[in-house]
Amino acid sequence: MKLFRNAKSSASGFALAALLSVSVGFLEATPAVAKPPAKAQPAVLTASAIAVADEYSADAAEQIFKEGGNAVDAAVAIAFTLAVTYPEAGNIGGGGFMTLYVDGKPYFLDYRERAPLAATKNMYLDDKGEVIKGMSLYGYRAVGVPGTVDGMWQAQRRFGKLNWKQVLAPAIHYARDGFQVSEQLQQRRDDAAKEFAGKTNFDTYFGNLKQGVNFKQPDLAAVLQRISDQGAKDFYSGKTAGLIAESMRGHGLITRADLQQYKAVWRQPIQADWKGYRVYTAPPPSSGGIGLVQLLKMKADRAADFKDVPLNSPQYIHLIAEIEKRVFADRAQYLGDPDFYKVPVAQLTDDAYIAKRASEVNPETPSDTKSVQPGLGTSMPEKAETTHFSVVDKWGNAVSNTYTVNGYFGSGVVADRTGIVLNDEMDDFSAKPGVANMFGVVGSDANSIEPKKRPLSSMSPTILTKDGKVSLVIGTPGGSRIFTSIFQVINNIYDFDMPLPQAVGAMRFHHQLLPPNTIFWEPYQPIDGELAKQVEAKGYTLKAQNFNGDIQAIKINGNTPEAAADPRGRGVTRIIQ
Ligand code: GLY
């Protein structure tokens, strides 16, 4: 198999470049020094496996496994590679969440972006207190302080087996030597270019990104090389920090001090028992983990109502919408950054509380929206976001990682002389309580803007284990559709015994309390014809929408991994011996 594409150098060329490049001036982290060889561990699975967003990141991961790396090494190599080859969502200018299961223990790393020090609660409101349209979505003021580089640094330092330079090598190669642009990437670029036209410098960097072209990013290659040589320090206090701050000066809020003070945080994952499995998923500042657990448990609580109800039938859609209505009511009210707001995690995931919420479900007709949660919402504009990858190594470790620049190509700003696409994550704050963000979801003061605060997210990288062993690794992009999509795929697998590829490809729908009694469906598997008529007859409005779903999942059958990439995206799976 040809491992590295469009490269003059070969696979071993990556490794050689990594070893030849000597670290200078960053003795504290000594990233160029190889870690001492780990004690040989017996393999517990027949192979390692990946499900990732594109073929280049798959090649990178495969190489890392061949060099003796583990799931964390592979994950970090994938993340840096996607920042180059999947620039619409892969990133070093954004942030994300990583759920890990290493040596039989769960971990969660929050490398979500933070609001700049100069951010204020009303920074997106005009004199009349109205939200200024687009201000949190486009341009310099939409950008949160990026977390991805520190996240990858911390994960690899803590759990990786390889030397830091080895995991950076594939990304540097693709940035320096180029990669072949896919049709989907060009399409997304074209859409973004229209959206950013006249607002940002997007086209200066991505004007030449055309299908079939070997696209090179020399500025980004230089940044990645410095990160390889100097570790995360370059990004947060070195030359790259200076370039980002310089780009921002006079336009945006992020300064050198913002970058210097950024830190990714290790948190306790949300944990729950469900049908004999242990679920590990994202805690706040994600809403997704709590939402996923509430969905799974409420459905189990209403098992009698679901008995003999066919998958994706009108009654099934109704019952799921009833459950989702309650989950989104909680999301709007209680969720925000736990470092700033006391999120009642234990209460929201408590079995008795969830059972009480489940008892409010009306099995016949849609509950009145106002009785569940008052407020007005708008529908989500058609905009895409985020990317996910799942990794399992033959030693039984797993990484489930979702990261993002929010909308495709984030704020549309590329930091000058770096090629770094900067996020528009500030839109995930509630600019004004009760006013919907780009995903159409509303928030309360729990998610208001404050300096150094992390905006509420829906990203839900998830791992299920059984008897202490990894059983499923799953996640997807899709904003507020993320955890309802994961929930549906888990149902497909465990409640309807669907084979993994079918479970991932099957119809998905979404309800989120607002707009009232609206069921969103996606063109890939439409709700139409007789099914649509029957759902409408139950009192729902149907609305087509691109969820931008791209589930990447790995299931372990016995001791053999099986992987599935969503047919909706350009994802790739590999089983690596
Ligand atoms: N920006 C999408 C999310 O964090 O859920």
UniProtKB/TrEMBL annotation:
One of its GO terms (biological process) is glutathione biosynthetic process. The gene is ggt_2. Cleaved by autocatalysis into a large and a small subunit. The keyword Magnesium does not apply. Residues 358-377 are annotated as: Disordered. L-glutamate binds at R112, T404, V405, N406, D428, S457, S458, G479. It catalyses: an N-terminal (5-L-glutamyl)-[peptide] + an alpha-amino acid = 5-L-glutamyl amino acid + an N-terminal L-alpha-aminoacyl-[peptide]; an S-substituted glutathione + H2O = an S-substituted L-cysteinylglycine + L-glutamate; glutathione + H2O = L-cysteinylglycine + L-glutamate. The keyword Acyltransferase applies. The active site is at T386 (nucleophile). InterPro entries: GGT_bact, GGT_CS, GGT_lsub, GGT_peptidase, GGT_ssub_C, Ntn_hydrolases_N. Keywords: Acyltransferase, Glutathione biosynthesis, Hydrolase, Signal, Transferase, Zymogen. It comes from Paraburkholderia rhynchosiae. Residues 1-34 form the signal peptide. Its EC number is 2.3.2.2, 3.4.19.13. This is Glutathione hydrolase proenzyme. Residues 362-372 have a biased composition (Polar residues). GO terms for molecular function: glutathione hydrolase activity; leukotriene C4 gamma-glutamyl transferase activity. Belongs to the gamma-glutamyltransferase family. This enzyme consists of two polypeptide chains, which are synthesized in precursor form from a single polypeptide. Pathway: Sulfur metabolism; glutathione metabolism.
